[in-house]
């Protein structure tokens, strides 16, 4: 029983609920303070991977040790992922955030010829602190501010002294764990974000991710990366502030891009920047100049702009308003192209994860007019069963609020994962259809059956597969040999009626063919050190202490029995079976602790009493 309890605690999986992003509802509520003068900016140095400091707000609701550990691991892995993708000109001095002059100042000098033009003339007596969404910014993170009582004198009075700043940080992310009103109002909401500070060039310097307290266990690395991308600049409120640095690297030499969004001839709102256009043209294998990055229509007002990609055209992107099944999102080339076009970042585009959805389908792919005509296998009609487009999951032909009536195979809610061995229950239908579940299994359209049927219905079924080359693979069903499955064709299996249909350009394309990580490990495949929050180090240490305590108790002869007759006293330590059991348990504890130490070598976390800095 004890071993079963240990295994349960160590191997428990986190379940991820459907999530709908509300960034465009939240960001307009936040006043963004932009550094007005170069003197407030730290001296810049070399271009290097962006350092993201993560601060757990003091206003957060109290977390258990296990919850805090899970949060640390999830956020750290998200931060490492983003830092490996984006580089900036690093500051050589600690990061200090500007104060909001509209909060600490009662009025500004407005004489444009005066020496104190746009400086504060009188302090607001009610000024107390600065906020970033719902988080109070520590004074130590803030620059100082002065008041200039005389319009013609540059002698100022210090209202607030500058803090020490945050060293070795290029962006400061405040984490706020709270069951906010917005969390209560929307049951599908896991987290939301906003940015609140920017440098003189417009690049965000600080932001907040609010995590809904009661859904903490459902927040994945995928969720945090999505919200962090919003805070770093993938925002409709920032599109018009992106800059063109194609000639000179320095921000001061860059020119504003201006308006970069407008509707195409069909009314689809798009983002028109050079890298985004090129990335979409390569993805669709089309040269149409109208192919700007498609923005979601359903979560924006008519003629308005969204901070998400259009779901009909870019299923699988990390920047959709509603994600797909856990582990199915990709940090796609179009998203990284958008960050490249901000002008604020040097982007490691080599780490982009190719999108399967719509690849090579041409300029008309995903339009409202073509998604119903069966011209593309990515869309479906009716409400039948089939396979999600990545073929890890069984699916059902459905639509939703973001698909404008188009229908796609969406992953089933229960037991849809072909790659999970535990889903194999061998019900009558699965057995007669030859299904096999496991890490090498994928979903195939099939009407195989061992029964005699006059009408065979095609549905999604799980069979083993193994790659033999790019877009080449073999399939094995229950009790069959491995058979070549020609992409775009079909095969028959001895002993079965019907066929297995072999998808084209969906399987054995690249390294992403491996099964998605479990929810507890949900992370984009960055091939970096993994830290599993399911392994609680305190729990392991206490468990080992408990084992050694029992050992110490049993290894000492019973004192009462010794007084009576030491020869008849039973010494458990002398029992080979007991010794073996304790040795095995102790070794298991040491092994698990050793694995944790090797996997989490880079996990350095420092938490303060009221608020904490997660050094990622």
Question: How does the SSE layout of this entry go?
Answer:
Layout: H1 2-11, H2 23-26, E1 33-34, E2 44-49, E3 52-56, H3 65-83, E4 86-91, H4 101-104, E5 105-108, E6 120-123, E7 131-132, E8 135-136, E9 145-147, E10 157-160, E11 171-177, H5 181-185, E12 191-198, E13 204-211, H6 221-232, E14 243-244, E15 255-256, E16 261-263, E17 269-271, H7 274-284, E18 293-294, H8 333-341, E19 346-347, E20 385-387, E21 394-398, E22 408-411, H9 428-432, E23 441-446, E24 459-469, E25 472-476, E26 483-484, E27 490-491, E28 500-501, H10 537-554, H11 559-565, H12 576-599, E29 606-607, E30 612-614
Helix pairs in contact: 3-6, 7-8, 10-12
Notes on the structure:
- The protein is an alpha+beta fold and 616 residues long.
- The protein folds into 4 domains: 179 residues, Elastase, domain 1 (Roll); 144 residues, Alpha-Beta Complex (Leishmanolysin, domain 2); 95 residues; 45 residues.
- It is 21% helix and 19% strand.
- It has 12 helices and 30 strands.
- Strands 1-12-13-11-3-30-29 form a 7-stranded mixed β-sheet. A 4-stranded antiparallel β-sheet has the order 23-24-25-26, with no helix packed on it. Strands 2-4-19 form a 3-stranded antiparallel β-sheet, covered by helices on one side.
- A hairpin with a 6-residue loop joins strand 25 and strand 26.
- Helix 10 packs antiparallel against helix 12.
- The longest helix is centred in the last third of the chain and has 24 residues.
- It is elongated and about 95 Å long.
- The N terminus is likely disordered.
